[in-house]
Design a protein that fits this description.
alpha/beta, Rossmann fold, 2 domains, 6-stranded mixed β-sheet, 23 helices
Length: 600
């Protein structure tokens, strides 16, 4: 059993009952909501039951949009297309085969599988290495247009512009469809709530905050984004199945761009990134629109638009602001307790004569500007190599080429004998490479503990159902946390940390990967002298005791002298010197390069 760190576990022990209560609270709220909705048809009139049935189905779609946009940062207008495909798949199959139980089950399966497969295709087109969020949003704009045109071109099979009507539906009364929609909404919202509150759900926020850091933690952002798009497309298709049965009619507008845009607006006004807000907002806005369109057929859009503006001005966070204030006194509205820290035995890197990192003839240009030229470098296990040189020498560019095989460069880079050319950062991380950036790269919306847990995700798959109470970390990581005081800030959002604390957190995240090679770009920037000394001790221990190869870019020459086993000097994109600390520090060439007060 790993040894629990007492200082970190004390606060969690005091709040041991709170996590259980927090986990039970959503289930209790969901049960109460289901019970209230189950009896609601007994007190509502027929018009309200009809409209609210549709509103709750739309709210299911709003939850999927919120997961994509509010949590994962993927602005999408395409959920309407997946919804429409599910509805049309249901109507077309039931029109052709009737409503026998086995055909009804087949229609439900088809309503999920068809949009899920399309979601895989859309995700594959939208997310590729170095694609931009704008590109994914444009793809999501095109999909509803293409699907709608397909419906118009379907002739009798799709009903063209008239849609489909008169097909067999589930043998339920209006109250039954209301309850079916209510159950679907409660189940989907509860599942989404459990997911986003779990350790695995933090991956969605990490994607939104810092996709690059996800890749450099060994995660595959592309796979996560495609999988999320496909699964939520299937959920939208299931909502389309329920809609087709409840309404008895499907039309091209159900899959159209306008409806997709409305979903985004409803989520924004409800409060994206909250789940509860989009649900309440969608139901309230759709029900209000249905009532106003009947009572004030010429003014309802103006009144609704005025209400939208008022909400945006008075409640910038959407309707969720009201819900957030209401639940702030409940356990589910409180910040989660920090997990207890536990030390895991560090894995010693295998030592042999073969270099862990080999660079041969590396050259990098931007157009006619040559940044790196003819770089040859080898680093073996246990070496701590400092990379120094004036500003503009190409140090950070070299680090980028070492950690991202998709960078266009000439020459070769190999990690433990494996060529990295064409490998994305997450695949290079899997070879045993960890990288710290020049500017601290962490997940601003997540807590310190959540950032560190994600750094362990490539080794220990996070649970999609709960948050673990114990966070196991290698001992060097715990040393950094104690040294910088981060062990007392495990529940603190990373955005509230000081610059130096963020630097230390990123270094801890890199070390949590247990890499064989660590690429560090100014790891001590913003830290005090005492903190730099301690980090130097940690780095020397990693190299000497665990056999990890460390490549360090650093501007503090005193720090470099104290910890380095070798120093490599870059100047104007060329490697001009590679030797021991004494050889480099005493070199006349180095004094010439730094003449005039330049710093390494």
């Amino acid at each position: 059993m790993p040894e629990t760190v007492p200082a970190a576990g004390l606060a969690a022990a005091r709040a041991s009952g709170r996590p259980r209560l927090a986990r039970a609270a959503p289930l209790a709220v969901a049960l109460l909501a289901a019970m209230a909705l189950w009896v609601a048809p007994l007190v509502l009139d027929t018009f309200a039951v009809n409209v609210l049935t549709r509103s709750m189905i739309y709210a299911v779609l709003a939850v999927t949009v919120d997961l994509l946009w509010g949590f994962a940062g993927i602005l999408t207008f395409g959920q309407a297309a997946f919804f429409g495909i599910g509805a049309y798949a249901t109507a077309m199959l039931l029109s052709a085969q009737g409503g026998a139980p086995h055909w009804m089950a087949a229609a439900a399966a088809l309503a999920v599988v068809a949009p899920l497969l399309l979601g895989l295709a859309v995700g594959w087109l939208s997310f590729y290495h170095r694609s931009t969020p704008l590109y994914a949003s444009v793809i999501s704009l095109v999909v509803p247009i293409v699907v709608t045109q397909g419906i118009y071109s379907g002739g009798e099979r799709t009903g063209s512009s008239s849609g489909l009507v008169g097909f067999d539906v589930l043998p339920l009364e209006i109250e039954g469809f209301f309850r079916l929609a209510a159950i679907l909404l409660v189940v989907v919202t509860l599942a989404a709530w459990i997911l986003v509150r779990s350790d695995a759900g933090r991956l969605l926020v990490a994607l939104r905050d810092n996709e690059a850091r996800c890749a450099y933690l060994g995660l595959n952002p592309r796979r996560l984004q495609i999988g999320l798009t496909a699964v939520l497309a299937g959920v939208a298709g299931l909502a389309g199945f329920v809609f087709a049965n409840a309404s008895g009619v499907v039309a091209p507008e159900n899959a159209g761009f306008l409806f997709g845009t409305e979903l985004v607006i409803w989520v924004a006004l409800g409060g994206r990134g909250t789940l509860v807000g989009p649900v309440l907002g969608t139901i309230a806005i759709d029900y209000l629109a249905a009532n106003l369109s009947g009572d004030l057929p010429f003014l309802w859009q103006l009144l609704l638009g005025t209400a939208f503006v008022a909400i945006i001005i008075l409640l910038p966070g959407g309707l969720a602001e009201l819900a957030r204030r209401a639940v702030s006194v409940l356990p589910l509205g409180r910040r989660a307790a920090a997990p207890r820290l536990a030390a895991r035995p560090a894995r010693a890197a295998p030592r042999n004569e073969a270099p862990l990192l080999s660079v041969e003839g590396l050259a990098k240009s931007y157009g006619s500007l040559t940044v790196l030229e003819s770089i040859d470098l080898t680093v073996r296990a246990g070496e701590l190599v400092s990379l120094v040189g004036p500003n503009g020498a190409g140090k950070t560019t070299l680090m980028r080429c070492l950690s991202d095989g998709t960078e266009p460069f000439r020459g070769s880079v190999a990690v433990a004998g494996t060529a990295t050319a064409g490998l994305t950062p997450n695949r290079i991380v899997a070879l045993g490479v960890g990288r710290k950036f020049q500017v601290a790269s962490v997940f601003e919306s997540l807590s310190v503990a959540e950032c560190l847990r994600l750094a362990r995700a490539a080794h220990e798959a996070p649970s999609p159902l709960r948050r673990a109470d114990i966070l196991g970390l290698p001992q060097p990581v715990l040393d950094i946390l104690r040294m910088t005081g981060l062990d007392a800030l495990m529940a603190e959002p990373a955005r509230l940390l000081s610059h130096g604390q963020k630097q230390a957190l990123e270094l801890a995240m890199v070390m949590a990967l247990e890499p064989r090679i660590i690429l560090l770009d100014e790891p001590t920037a913003g830290l005090t002298k005492a903190e730099r000394t301690t980090i130097g001790t940690v780095l020397k221990g990693l190299a000497a005791d665990l056999g990890i190869a460390v490549v360090l870019v650093e501007h503090d020459l005193d720090f470099v002298r104290e910890i380095s086993s070798r120093i490599v000097v870059l100047h104007q994109g060329r490697l001009v010197l590679d030797g021991t600390v004494e050889e480099v520090v005493g070199s006349a060439l180095v004094r010439t390069i730094y003449a005039g007060g330049a710093h390494a």
